[in-house]
Amino acid sequence: MRFDPRLWRLRNLHLIMFLVVGCSVAEPHAIRIESMADSNQSSAIAVDLVAVNDPVLTSELKSLSGPDWFERRAELLAAHADRLSVVSLQIAPAYVVTEVQRPSWHRSAETVLLFANYLSPAGQHASVLSGYKQLLIRLERDSYQLLESD
Fold it and tell me: Theoretical Cys-Cys bridge with 28: which of 16, 59, 132, 137, CB 3.0 to 4.6 Å?
């Protein structure tokens, strides 16, 4: 069997494309948070970014509401310290965070989740933060939006 440089280049090109696409989908390159003046009914919002490195734990955490996460956070972090990393923020109304620190080892995490502790049930769901290059989290009166930022 002869060495064919065209096949070698094609194979390497596919590998590079896989790595680039895989890395860009896994997590946002940058995260920005904008809190509207009336966000959370004019109250500060607790927001946690949670990097998870276990598929079973990811599934369990996705089923939690924001208040459930914040109530169980200490217990979950103690039980799964080797599989969870968290960045916690307290965001006041009419405030902008231009560059959010991401959880440690977020690049190797299976999933990065967002939990917000809204007063309204509409804003209490967990969100997966993959699929964004420049993520804008807009905190509104009763819930939040995840948007691709310019």
Answer: 132
